[in-house]
Structures are given as C-alpha cells and as structure tokens.
Sequence to fold (285 residues):
Amino acid sequence: ELRVYQWVQNLLIFVPLFVSNAYTDMSLVLACVVGFLAFSLLASATYVLNDLVDLDADRIHQHKKHRPLASGDLSIFDAVVTAVVLLFISAALALSASVEFSVVLLVYLALTLSYSLKLKRYFAMDVIALASLYTIRIFAGAAIMGIAISFWLLSFSMFVFLSLALIKRCAELVTLKNQAKEQVSGRDYGVEDLSILSSFGTSSSLLSVLMYCFYINNDSLTSAFQEPDILWLSIPALGYWLMRMWVKTIRGEMHDDPIVFSLMDRGSIFAIGFIGLVTLAAQLH
Fold:
C-alpha cells in the first residue's frame, strides 16, 4: 500500500546535487538523503490518502482492485492511522533538513491533495499537476542545497515531465482500447482522446530535448562542468529514451509509472546510464 517502489521518483531530489558537481560534499549528500526520506514518507502517505479517495473506482479497476485497500486486506482505520504517522515523521525530517525544504514539501502536499481530491478528474489539468509534482522534487533538492535552479534546466524538467505524465494517461487509454472500453473510471478521458494526447506528449518530448540543448549551451555551466561540450553526446541517448517510452506506450507495453518502468526496462537503463556517464565525464574531464 505504501508503494515503496515508487520512491524511485524521489531520486529526482539528487538532480541538483549531481548537476552542480557537489556530490563530494558529504554534508550536502547527507542532507539530500534526509530530504529523500522525508519526501518518500510523505509520498507514501499521499498514496494511502489517494487510495482512500479512489476506493470505489479502484475496486472495479483491472489492476488497482488488487491493492490492499481496494481488496480489503487493509482496513480504512489502519490506512488513516498509517498516513497520519507518516506525515508526522516526514514533517520532523523536513524541518531537520531546512525551512526552505519544508516549505517546498508543503507545496507538494497541497498540490498532491488538490490532485487527489479534484484536479485528476479534469481533462489536461491532471497531467499538468503530475508534471508539476515531478518538477517540485527538483526544487526540493535545490532548496536543501540552498541553490537556484537554472532556467533552462527548469524548462527541460517541465517539458520532459509533462511528456511522462501524458505517457501515464495514454497508457491507460491504450489499455482501455485493447479491452474494447470507452472511458477511464474517475477521469475525464475516453479512448477518442488518445491521438491528441499522444500528439501533445511527443511534442513535449521534442521540446524537452530542445530545452536540454539550450541548457548545455548555457555559459553558466562552466562553474559545474570542466568540459560542458561533452554533454552534447547525451542528446542521442535522451532522444532514444523518449522515443522508446512513447513506442512502448502506444504498443500497450507501459504497465507502470513511466519512471519506475524506465528503471526496469533494459533499453531505458542503458540510455539513462549513458547520460549519467556523459555527465560525469563532462565534470571530471
């Protein structure tokens, strides 16, 4: 029920640490680890709250009906108590990290509750909220470190996460289409929306690659990278990964959160690993 495997999304907190070449500062690394734990516990609490809100819809969903709450393996009382305990522990860890990080965590909580209670039922607003929830994790990492995020990195993040959020929604529609159904339960989407959503998603992917190019071309990178031009080698890998994700989605092979899927898919692991190695080479060359 806590969906610990989803904690992998919170590794985005370490992105500012990685791109700023500060991962040798153990005090910052430790602070980011504390932030990761705080964010992960908060995320698990919101997963429980979201499942409580979606209980009726989950009980008739093909996959979600097997979740502990939907299947009856976990009582509603126990779920509420668990969520409250996790929220308190998360708050304590966040305050020990920094006040700024705590504020970012509150923004995340407010947005994810808005998503669970209202936004996810509205066309397009849900995917924008999801993309923002991904991006907030990068803000959280920057808040822990006390640094500002590059405009181009922020732009890249918003477009790539919008694409991933649309992948998540399109994957649901492809599943519906294969089951000869028309409407997503609890969502303002039908199979007829698949073409327009996939168009927006692939366009966002291309725009994210463009924003990444502008990020690489930014003069401010010289403070964190010895040879920023080496980063251009990561562009083909980024393009390959995004194309692979969309092809997997349209084929009906995207059965999980896109970030979780990426860390279980061999081609995606290769592409992401290559990007990481190129980034290290640009810093250490």
